[in-house]
Amino acid sequence: MNLLDAWANWQPASAPFILERDRDILNSKQSTDTVVTYRSWREACGAPDFCALGDRRLHLGLLPQPFFGDVRRATVYILLLNPGLGPGDYYGEYEVPNYRAALLANLKQEFRGASPFPFLNPEFAWHGGFNWWHGKLAKVIGRLASARRVSFSEARSHLGSVIASIELVPYHSPAFKNAGGLVRKLKSVDLARRFVADFVLPRVQSGEAIVIVTRKVAAWNLPERPGVVAYSAAQARAAHLTPESPGGLAILRHLRAAE
Q1: 75 lies in some domain
Q2: Which of 108, 210, 233, 235 is least surrounded by CB atoms within 10 angstroms?
Q3: d(C-alpha 92, C-alpha 73), whole Å
Q4: What are the two backbone dihedrals, phi and then psi, of residue 91, each rounded to the nearest 5 degrees?
Q5: Contact criterion met (CB below 8 Å) for 102 and 118
């Protein structure tokens, strides 16, 4: 079973939200400082350590985010480490039904209407994920708008239709800690790596797509070849996607060549 099939068939009945193949590994961590499971917005915001600095636990009360965007049809892939976490995540998933529905639709790769990349969709502009992605890509969107002679909104929608992100680890944390070698042990990590190797890289080799690896470059274990942009350790700290950055420049060149 590949990455997309595994998550499309996953049934998130109740927290902790864990891919079945990861359950034994993550259940064994329940008594440690590696994971935490809050089952409501009230429980999360009422916790004594809510939004505390230095939290590196995986938050299993939130839906995993193994990828975003139309992963089969995207031509720009951005590879990351794991989804971050802010107060808007718990509020959105437990208090905003259309936001949670969008996350579940993304897992099943079922898209309707607006941009398939949720965090370039203004409907979710209140969420920290939109602020993060939009902040990273706003200047690239502006360049696209100028080059295509369209509005900023139209350029953003177009980018949202061709971009996808894939996380090495699908579970949220404010900061990541590879406790007990989780990256090596989690089956979801292996699914992400194999999908990139088996599906994404052949499209890169044919010139159809590009890959930008902003975080945990060594763990993704990608070959050096045209179309693969791997950030250095210094570049990965900020993971800029401005037009002057390696990734932003690659996006602009790729989309211009595709016109």
Answers
A1: yes
A2: 233
A3: 27
A4: -60, -45
A5: yes
Which domain, by its residues, includes 181?
Answer: 64-87+97-258
Residue 175 near residue 190, CB atoms below 8 Å: no
Profile the chain (259 residues) by mean pLDDT over runs of 10 residues. 93 94 83 85 93 90 97 97 93 97 96 86 95 96 96 96 97 84 91 97 97 90 92 84 96 89
Give the chain's domain count: 1
Q: Which of 38, 170, 169 is nearest to 91 (CA)?
A: 38
List CB contacts of 248: < 8 A, sequence separation 6 or more. 137, 139, 140, 240, 241, 242
Residue 193 lies in a domain: yes
**pTM exceeds cut of 0.85:** yes
In a domain, 29, yes or no: no
Tokens of 146: 């100028």
Sequence-separated (6 or more) residues with CB below 8 Å from residue 50? 44, 87
